[in-house]
Design brief:
- The chain has 5 helices and no strands.
- With about 100 residues, it is mainly alpha-helical.
């Protein structure tokens, strides 16, 4: 079992899964596509201070949440899906930002 403080580090590979693995893509490719699109809009919104892109990121995140919830059934709390999907969008946007920063250097 991993130490709780180690598990709080979202960037640490806790289960020796290859970096190329994408569990969301394997679980639900349609939701994974929505997450990627939402992240691209979130990245653009932050980079350009674009309110329209921020709204699109929000709408796509809600669609992704809906997709995950329909697959999980009604016994799972809505809040969990919202938090997880939102975090996935944030992480994907951070990856885009890192890629853009690396490319510019």
């Amino acid at each position: 079992m991993n130490d709780i403080s180690a598990m709080r580090s979202i960037s640490r590979n806790l289960f020796d899964v290859p970096a190329s693995a994408n569990a969301l893509e394997e679980y639900d490719p349609d939701v994974a596509q929505l997450v990627r699109e939402a992240a691209a809009h979130l990245f653009k919104a932050r980079r350009d201070n674009d309110g329209t892109a921020l709204n699109e990121a929000y709408n796509l995140t809600l669609l992704a949440v809906s997709g995950l919830m329909s697959g999980a059934g009604s016994s799972v709390y809505v809040r969990t899906h919202v938090m997880v999907t939102t975090r996935l969008v944030e992480l994907e946007a951070a990856l885009l930002a890192t890629g853009a920063k690396t490319a510019s250097e």
